[in-house]
Design brief:
Rossmann fold; two-stranded antiparallel ribbon; 5 helices; 8 strands; 22% strand; binds pyrazine-2-carboxylic acid; binds zinc ion
Length: 209
């Protein structure tokens, strides 16, 4: 058994004070740290939203569009985000209070300005792979517990892709280690994950195993 912990986008930009703050986003850090420090994982991976300046998901790249409106990117509907997680800025750094010295591998994503990439495994158009699925296969991963930011975007799409791209691997979503942008979106995300076979768990139950 190779147990992996997958930490999704626990970055300054998605926490209070960041450019795309998720309500209470910083509260996932102690949960992530407790799991990191538990010693129960053979492999710890973090994803990092890593956009070039002027990325096509930014409202600022679309004249007349405001953040959180629906726009278009490469001919497809795209949520217009505030500028966030620009490569090399403090906004894109992992949270400084995350126990990052224990992280084995960081998967960056979202570098292509013409397509967004919510999932840590592939772009939203499902064409370009990040390489994370192959990495996890090479490491013979059998279980993935995932958590982070934001439940209704990057966490959800990463979980759904993990089910599709890593057949036979047990995927679990750690609910108390995750926060979302929109409460209704979070409710739907949890339903979608559950329907796809993702187990919904708490850090307390994991730490008691
Ligand atoms: C995310 C919106 C835009 C996320 C990333 O990490 O959930 N959301 N980029
Ligand atoms: Zn982004």
């Amino acid at each position: 058994m190779t147990k992996a912990l997958l930490l999704i986008d626990i970055q300054n930009g998605f926490c209070p004070g960041g450019n795309l703050p998720v309500p209470d986003g910083d509260q996932v850090v102690p949960v992530a740290n407790a799991l990191i420090d538990s010693g129960r994982y053979d492999l710890i991976v973090a994803s990092q939203d890593w956009h070039p300046a002027g990325h096509g998901s930014f409202a600022s790249a679309h004249p007349g569009k405001a953040p959180f409106e629906i726009g278009e990117l490469s001919g497809k509907p795209q949520m217009m985000w505030p500028d966030h997680c620009v490569q090399g800025t403090a906004d894109a750094e992992l949270r400084p209070d995350l126990h990052a010295d224990r992280i084995d591998f960081i998967q960056q994503k979202g570098q292509n300005p013409a397509v967004d990439s919510y999932s840590a495994f592939r772009d939203n158009d499902q064409a370009a792979l990040t390489g994370l699925a192959d990495y996890m296969k090479a490491m013979a991963v059998t279980e993935i517990d995932l958590l982070g930011l934001a439940t209704d975007y990057c966490v959800k799409f990463s979980a759904l892709d993990a089910v599709d791209m890593l057949p036979g691997v047990a995927i679990r979503f750690v609910e108390d280690g995750s926060r979302g942008i929109d409460p209704e979106g979070v409710r739907q995300a949890i339903e979608e994950m559950r329907a796809k076979g993702v187990e919904i768990v708490s850090s307390r139950s994991l730490l008691a195993e």
